[in-house]
Amino acid sequence: xxxxxxxxxxxxxxxxxxxxxxxxxxxxxxxxxxxxxxxxxxxxxxxxxxxxxxxxxxxxxxxxxxxxxxxxxxxxxxxxxxxxxxxxxxxxxxxxxxxxxxxxxxxxxxxxxxxxxxxxxxxxxxxxxxxxxxxxxxxxxxxxxxxxxxxxxxxxxxxxxxxxxxxxxxxxxxxxxxxxxxxxxxxxxxxxxxxxxxxxxxxxxxxxxxxxxxxxxxxxxxxxxxxxxxxxxxxxxxxxxxxxxxxxxxxxxxxxxxxxxxxxxxxxxxxxxxxxxxxxxxxxxxxxxxxxxxxxxxxxxxxxxxxxxxxxxxxxxxxxxxxxxxxxxxxxxxxxxxxxxxxxxxxxxxxxxxxxxxxxxxxxxxxxxxxxxxxxxxxxxxx
Length: 383
What we know:
Blueprint: H1 5-19, H2 37-45, H3 49-63, H4 69-80, H5 99-102, E1 111-112, H6 117-126, E2 139-142, E3 147-150, H7 157-165, H8 172-183, H9 189-194, E4 198-200, E5 205-211, H10 212-216, H11 226-237, H12 249-281, H13 295-304, H14 309-315, H15 322-335, H16 337-367, H17 373-377
Parallel strand pairs: 1-5
Antiparallel strand pairs: 2-3, 4-5
Helix pairs in contact: 1-16, 3-16, 4-8, 8-12, 11-12, 12-13, 13-16, 15-16
């Protein structure tokens, strides 16, 4: 995926244009103050479903006319993909390892929790140490099949409203998932396929939406049942002799160390690509897995390669060179002022573009009469 020459020439102009004027302009007392997120949510909740749908349709149409660096990148990525977004498969529950196959002497059946509040609480607790994103993405890149998958809420007005409130334009989540796909060379697919199986506790309870990959990078103390541990080992090493369920306590550490040695390279591969993809379209995204401090360096990397995913993919490391790659990126940015400042300008430009997305939502709600003076004066409480 490479930007056409005319687009490359336009990018510096777009970056500069994103900053706007720097001269101070006296505030116009006739212009109402920018409403808070709470103001906007109060106004949104007062709307009927049909009004919400109409507002979001209007917002989507108007957002197409925002001439920003961010929206140019979104359109470039989506238009470069030949496949119609509507043909990507829907997200499905993760498969489970079969206890009869991998632990026949201890075949505890796997039973998913019923959807509902209890399952939601269990899933939330599992991810409580993972930084929460502001973006509510309906799309995810599937490292198993090399495809995109979408949730049921692609066109949900509530989701699109909350994203706009946070400065994310329509389809940014789709473009971000496509970028992550473009950065993956598939070299860790076998390992990531094994860790894409559902996580289960020792009683066989499966928490919906939690995979073994999630478990291993959650930062939580977790139970690791024999079925899942042996399933990973069998799939990736074809070793059916060294460990058998029930695995005695004296052998458990050695088993976990073997699994950890398989997991870490795949974790470095996927985590790095996910973090770099998140920084493609957003100035200040939330990065997980310890990559937050690398944000400006990732922007510098994108700037260095003209915001072209295929070019960045070529310089991303094999798993065994992960540390060397990050160390070199730190050194390059410290030693090259132009590179470092280019990354900082890119982040600032995308942040300014996000502010324009939120400003568009505010303008449309005002023009529709949904932000009356009572709400804006009350700090969010309708009286």
